[in-house]
């Protein structure tokens, strides 16, 4: 543990009880409950129903507080901002997936073309496609 924050897991792992999360976010625990009820922040839950906040949740709580206090955005506006940011993140992830699929398809196409070219018979000679006129004159006897 470093500075009271566990180092195991990732930023998505729900580990903090509401009192610790409130302290880390600089808010009152009741504010966190309100944000949860309004769908602004959705912490993980224990089997007994207790809230568990991740580092990502803490960062989101801080952003909600900043938008509210510094930018004067109401909670409905903040909820819409969060929804739109989540949508943008999902679209970026999908774009990355599609870009990777396209690159793989392009590579497969190039490999198929190379295999087709490699299968050509080498004993055939290409015909020159130029046109010419030949005049035939029989030999006189």
TrEMBL record:
<dbReference type="GO" id="GO:0003677">
    <property type="term" value="F:DNA binding"/>
</dbReference>
<dbReference type="InterPro" id="IPR000551">
    <property type="entry name" value="MerR-type_HTH_dom"/>
</dbReference>
<protein>
    <submittedName>
        <fullName>Helix-turn-helix transcriptional regulator</fullName>
    </submittedName>
</protein>
<dbReference type="Pfam" id="PF13411">
    <property type="entry name" value="MerR_1"/>
</dbReference>
<keyword id="KW-0238">DNA-binding</keyword>
<dbReference type="InterPro" id="IPR009061">
    <property type="entry name" value="DNA-bd_dom_put_sf"/>
</dbReference>
<feature type="coiled-coil region">
    <location>
        <begin position="81"/>
        <end position="108"/>
    </location>
</feature>
<keyword id="KW-0175">Coiled coil</keyword>
<feature type="domain" description="HTH merR-type">
    <location>
        <begin position="15"/>
        <end position="84"/>
    </location>
</feature>
<dbReference type="InterPro" id="IPR047057">
    <property type="entry name" value="MerR_fam"/>
</dbReference>
<dbReference type="GO" id="GO:0003700">
    <property type="term" value="F:DNA-binding transcription factor activity"/>
</dbReference>
